[in-house]
Write a structure and sequence with these properties.
With 118 residues, the protein is of the alpha/beta class. It has one domain: STAS domain (Transcription Regulator spoIIAA, 2-Layer Sandwich), CATH 3.30.750. Helix content is 35%, strand content 27%. Strand 1 and strand 2 form a beta hairpin. The protein starts with 5 loop residues before the first helix and ends in an 8-residue tail after the last strand.
Amino acid sequence: MPGLSLADRLHINAIADNLHVTFLLPHLTETNARDLAEDIADLAAWRGARHVQLDFSQVETLSSYVLMRLVVVDQKLRDVGRTLALVNLRPDVYDVFQATHLTEHLDTRPADQGDFVH
């Protein structure tokens, strides 16, 4: 979906040193998530957030490209002393993280374990 602005793709809520980012698109693909790692890392730095939560409550599907970019986001944030949590993962989306063993490397939380502030 070329031409979508950051505001069309993400809802951003910053409270103290926490940054809560909700994906607004139901299908995350290479096309609409191309700059994902840079966008999230830049937002965290701009807001001074130490803890970043990516909210997947609206996400129904995601591509392997997006999975790779999430690993990059996690590493970029860790490199500068920040943390990343993937929250509100729908069962089907959580299953993708489990099948790829990313639940062993990323902080992934199913929808019933969100633990976040709106």
